[in-house]
């Protein structure tokens, strides 16, 4: 039997397809976590004024803050989540543009003390002068994730 390069390409193609399928299967729960519940957005929340507090489904409270308060793009941002009367196995914050896709922007917060989580993040710059963002605080519990949304606007320097 003679060597046929078409067979080699077929085997390589099947191998690459199986690798891509495995990577997608493994990444799916990370990119699209199973939500147990999505909480309502609080329109009175203003992260530029200070921390925002939301109620959790189990009766607990969640406080979320970003500093510096002007929330600049491309600069280090300090994220802080405080949870009281509730438990989370992990805490992440997923940033997404409200009306423009801005890529995958999720950071896992590290527990500093019981119920206190912190991390550093950066937001990408946008071509618009003002960009509306949604930060979903994702709390991983026993049955999945609880998502607590917060909205804010970033401004380009000199846009005011």
Summarize the SSE layout with pairings:
Elements: H1 5-31, E1 35-38, E2 52-55, E3 61-67, E4 77-84, E5 90-97, E6 105-113, E7 116-121, E8 130-140, E9 145-155
Explain what you see.
- The chain is of the alpha+beta class and 160 residues long.
- It has a single domain (37-155), classed as Immunoglobulin-like (Sandwich).
- The chain is built from one helix and nine strands; from the N terminus they run H-E-E-E-E-E-E-E-E-E.
- A nine-stranded mixed sheet has the order 1-9-8-5-6-7-4-3-2, with no helix packed on it.
- The longest helix is centred in the first third of the chain and has 27 residues, at 5-31.
- The radius of gyration is 20 Å and the shape is extended.
- The model has no long low-confidence stretch (mean pLDDT 89).
Summarize the structure.
The chain has one helix at about 5-30; strands at about 35-40, 50-55, 60-65, 75-85, 90-95, 105-115, 115-120, 130-140, 145-155.
- For the record, the count of structural domains works out to 1
Name of the level-1 CATH class: Mainly Beta
Topology-level CATH name: Immunoglobulin-like
List the helices and strands in order: HEEEEEEEEE
CATH superfamily placement: Immunoglobulins
Biggest pleated sheet:
9 strands, mixed
The CATH architecture can be named as: Sandwich
Strand runs, count = 9
For the largest sheet, list the strands in their spatial order.
1-9-8-5-6-7-4-3-2
**What percentage of the residues does DSSP assign to strands (E)?**
35-45%
Helix fraction, binned, reads 10-25%
> Could you tell me the mean pLDDT?
89
Structural class: alpha+beta
Could you give the distance between the termini? 74 Å
Please state the CA-atom Rg, rounded to the nearest Å: 20 Å
